[in-house]
């Protein structure tokens, strides 16, 4: 597709560490192949408002390691409307931008699907979300960093929990997906892990605490995904304090700390590979696909097939958690 002269790049939805490494790879690969890259600030909202600037190689110097996104990100209600998307298209047309690369989660790709039904312009998506909840890729940009941040924090909490013989409920991010909770919980040897994908029975959780009490296990760390359905952090805390008043039970909500910080090597490498592959994909004439990795190979999935990851958590993994925390 030698006809592409100018591409627009945006980050949208929640930020995730590694987005900057992806922007760097897209800008540098574009320039290498003679395409002018344009940064679109604040996601779809910036596209509607024409907050767009030409990018040079130097704009992406020294950002491969940083969290956040130099293009900033936003959620845009206006882009959810036909009128908003028409305004956004007009801004691209005015500048002669003839292709787009979008970095974001499933919402961003849903937005892209709506946009491209109405306005045809080649577009490639990159999976940028700490939640790792997308079909079509083994990993998403930001997940590895977020899990490592959670692991570092939970390790610290376990030390203070041990010093005081406390029970800690640690809430990590993941409204609809428990991958951060599951993986940080396994890596930190959590006594229990509650995730939205599994129906949690509060009595079973309390029974496991009682069992640990009988065995004189004095430290208890429960990792809870923020979206753990019926139970949730507050209800769990209340139930534990009600049933075990003698236990010193504390809650720690890790919150936005999981989004910040330098990207891990895994996220930097993934973002660099996907950014580079996205530009090559446009040059090969691909469009309306998300570029990801499957079994470590670059893979392309049409936007409409990306959707939320629906793979059930393996029974084997759940059994392993019980065995290793026993
Ligand atoms: P994260 O996984 O971090 O939440 P996300 O990309 O899923 O990231 P969303 O807020 O769901 O984040 O989506 C980003 C933006 O995409 C929305 O603010 C909106 O502008 C646009 N968008 C989402 N869904 C649609 C849709 N159905 N039609 C048009 N635009 C949409």
Give the number of DSSP strands.
11
CATH class of the largest domain: Alpha Beta
Q: Helix tally?
A: 11
Beta-strand portion reads: 15-25%
Spatial ordering of strands, largest sheet: 3-2-1-4-5-10-11
Q: How many structural domains?
A: 2
User: Under CATH, the topology of the largest domain is which?
Assistant: Rossmann fold
The low-pLDDT segments are none
Helix content: 40-55%
Please write the string of helix (H) and strand (E) elements. EHEHEHEHEHEHEHEHEHEEHH
How does CATH name the architecture of the largest domain?
3-Layer(aba) Sandwich
Strand pairing plus helix content: what structural class? alpha/beta
Shape estimate: elongated
Radius of gyration: 22 Å
Give a description of the structure.
The chain is α/β, with parallel strands linked by helices. The chain has two domains: 6-142 and 263-305, Rossmann fold (3-Layer(aba) Sandwich), CATH 3.40.50; 143-259, Phosphofructokinase domain (Rossmann fold), CATH 3.40.50.460. It is 42% helix and 18% strand. The protein contains eleven helices and eleven strands. The strands form two sheets. A seven-stranded mixed sheet has the order 3-2-1-4-5-10-11, sandwiched between helices. Strands 7-8-6-9 form a four-stranded parallel sheet, sandwiched between helices. Helix 5 (143-164) crosses helix 6 (179-187). The longest helix is centred in the middle third of the chain and has 22 residues, at 143-164. The protein is elongated and about 70 Å long. The termini are far apart. The model has no long low-confidence stretch (mean pLDDT 94). The structure holds adenosine-5'-triphosphate. Adenosine-5'-triphosphate (ATP) is lined by residues 12-14, 44, 75-76, 79-80, 104-108, 110-111, 114, 129, 131.
């Amino acid at each position: 597709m030698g006809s592409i002269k100018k591409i627009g790049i945006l980050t949208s939805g929640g930020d995730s560490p590694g987005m900057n490494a992806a922007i760097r790879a897209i800008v540098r690969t574009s320039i290498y192949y003679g395409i002018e890259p344009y940064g679109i600030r604040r996601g779809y909202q910036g596209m509607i408002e024409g907050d767009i600037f030409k990018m040079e190689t130097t704009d992406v110097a020294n950002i491969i390691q940083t969290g956040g996104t130099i293009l900033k990100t936003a959620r845009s209600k206006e882009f959810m409307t036909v009128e908003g998307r028409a305004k956004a298209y007009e801004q691209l047309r005015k500048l002669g931008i003839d292709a787009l690369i979008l970095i974001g989660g499933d919402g961003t790709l849903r937005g892209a699907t709506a946009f491209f039904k109405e306005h045809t312009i080649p577009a490639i998506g990159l999976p940028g979300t700490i939640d790792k909840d997308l079909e079509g890729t083994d990993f998403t940009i930001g997940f590895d960093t977020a899990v490592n941040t959670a692991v570092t924090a939970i390790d610290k909490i376990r030390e203070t929990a041990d010093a005081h013989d406390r029970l800690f409920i640690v809430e990590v991010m993941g409204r609809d997906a428990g991958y951060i909770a599951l993986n940080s919980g396994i890596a930190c040897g959590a006594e229990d892990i509650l995730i939205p994908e599994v129906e949690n029975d509060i009595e079973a959780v309390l029974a496991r605490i009682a069992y640990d009490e009988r065995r004189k296990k004095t430290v208890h760390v429960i990792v809870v995904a923020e979206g753990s359905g019926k139970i949730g952090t507050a209800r769990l805390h209340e139930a534990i304090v009600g049933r075990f008043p003698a236990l010193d039970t504390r809650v720690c909500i890790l919150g936005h700390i999981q989004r910040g910080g330098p990207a891990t090597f895994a996220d930097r490498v993934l973002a660099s590979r996907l950014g580079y592959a996205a530009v090559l994909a446009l040059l090969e004439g691909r469009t309306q696909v998300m570029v990801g990795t499957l079994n470590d190979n670059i893979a392309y999935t049409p936007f409409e097939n990306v959707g939320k990851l629906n793979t059930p958590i393996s029974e084997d993994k759940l059994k392993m958690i019980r065995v290793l925390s026993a």
